Amino acid sequence: MEKTELLSGTLDLLVLRVLHGGPLHGFAIAERIHALSRDVLTVEEGSLYPALYRMQEKGWIEPEWGQSEKGRRAKFYSLTKEGRRQLTNERQTWDRVALAIGDVLRNA
Amino acid sequence: MEKTELLSGTLDLLVLRVLHGGPLHGFAIAERIHALSRDVLTVEEGSLYPALYRMQEKGWIEPEWGQSEKGRRAKFYSLTKEGRRQLTNERQTWDRVALAIGDVLRNA
DNA sequence: CAATTAGCCTAGACAATCTAGGTGAAACGC
DNA sequence: GCGTTTCACCTAGATTGTCTAGGCTAATTG
Fold it and tell me: What share of residues in chain B are helix, strand, coil (percent, to 5)?
């Protein structure tokens, strides 16, 4: 119910991850992350759109205009090959770091 | 071996956590986090000292000048009552968010 | 006594997020 | 048919946190 801001630096990872299931438009990406996290994570539009732009610049995702399920014009993003590689990287880094933080929390 | 930068926003939590074991000076805090994370997390001094200052301003930690194990002058920080409360909060938030991110990574 | 280490500190750059707006068009209520 | 809500995208600017890259002093080491 209460919304938590994201951990800085994890947004790209989350976006890449949900796009791995197939192309989605921006709004849907935010909804998907919100739902999958059981409403814990809220992606603000002011964070999302600049992030999508950055990721596109880096060649991780590719946009294409289309129609949303609700009949509106929407920009669908899909993962590029580079994006898939990046997803693997960021996932590994997340696992490493989350584990490391867990270690500190447990043993300090 | 390779150093990873911290996840933005987790530094306070880590510092509070290691101070929960008793007062430490700045340098020792960084070493402790590095060691407990099995060298995965590296706290740069340029991040640490400003963070300590902020946390002190917020009343979470308290400094006291003393002597380090190596006989040098050093500033020892200890948790305040507020700091202990903050530790509990940040820990819960971390758990919630880390779990939520895990959910997304698993099920997207 | 020179060089290294321990320990603290700061200014400035940089990056990511959030706030708080705005736009246009489709759908919905009446 | 007309106003309101919803969908969907976008942006400027402020804020925050970290990093880079220094500098300082005093004690230890060689």
Answer: 55, 20, 25
